[in-house]
Write a structure and sequence with these properties.
The protein has 229 residues and is mainly alpha-helical. It has one domain. It contains 13 helices and no strands. It starts with 10 loop residues before the first helix and ends with a helix. Component of a multi-subunit COQ enzyme complex.
């Protein structure tokens, strides 16, 4: 699935796709395909660094070896797990929004199979991070998670997404984000473990609060989330 979708681009073509994707994503932030293309064409050095870190981590190496995919056929069992577990929390997050893990766009612009998988993995664990950090999928929640993703992976696309997202904030949302959510997200991203080196599927059955503590996760402040809409 990953290899079949890939397209080889030279540097000029990559630059053209990056610019076109950036403009298109700013005009329509709902275009997941454009955001994905922007991430791939500007993020190769970042994905290479993530790949090196994964190879140094026991769980990261296991992920690279087995290449699990976050698709319905592989994660459907989480709906049957006890309500206190990480897997059940992920199921509630997805089910309450009528999301499907199969909706992620394919990787198209990575040079190697390994880098293509790392890029796909980063895309597919996004909703795990929403669950762990207890962030909604509205504009402030997505922008805050992009800050955490930048802290974790240093992807240029994450910064561009924050810029594009904050440009659409109301004055109240902008004040809330920069006074509370931006500093929280910076701290949360720095404090947590290397989240790309976690084999999440092996931890679905574990207590949500236990895995948060083990991975250094600071959930979004509950007192402020009610004002995020």
């Amino acid at each position: 699935m990953i290899e079949g979708a890939r397209v080889q681009l030279n540097r000029w073509q990559q630059a053209a796709v990056a610019v076109g994707s950036a403009v298109g994503a700013l005009l329509d932030p709902r275009r997941a395909d454009l955001i994905a293309a922007l991430g791939e064409t500007t993020g190769k050095p970042s994905f290479e660094r993530v790949l090196k870190r994964m190879k140094k981590s026991p769980e990261g190496r296991a992920v690279l070896l087995e290449q699990p995919r976050v698709i319905s056929a592989n994660v459907g069992h989480v709906w049957d797990l006890p309500p206190n577990t990480f897997g059940a929390a992920y199921a509630r997050f997805m089910g309450s929004r009528n999301f499907s893990p199969d909706d992620r766009p394919p990787v198209r612009f990575m040079d190697t199979d390994e880098l293509a998988y790392v890029a796909m993995r980063a895309r597919e664990v996004h909703d795990f991070w929403h669950t762990l950090f207890d962030l909604p999928t509205n504009l402030i929640g997505e922008s805050a998670l992009k800050v955490i993703e930048f802290e974790q992976m240093f992807l240029p696309m994450c910064l561009l997404s924050v810029v594009g997202g904050t440009a659409r904030f109301s004055e109240k949302q902008r004040a809330l984000f920069f006074q509370h959510y931006f500093p929280w997200a910076v701290q949360a991203g720095m404090r947590s473990t290397d989240l790309m080196c976690v084999y999440y599927e092996r931890h679905f059955h574990e207590d949500l609060e236990d895995v948060r503590r083990r991975w250094g996760i600071i959930p979004a402040p509950a007192a402020r989330k009610q004002h995020m809409g």
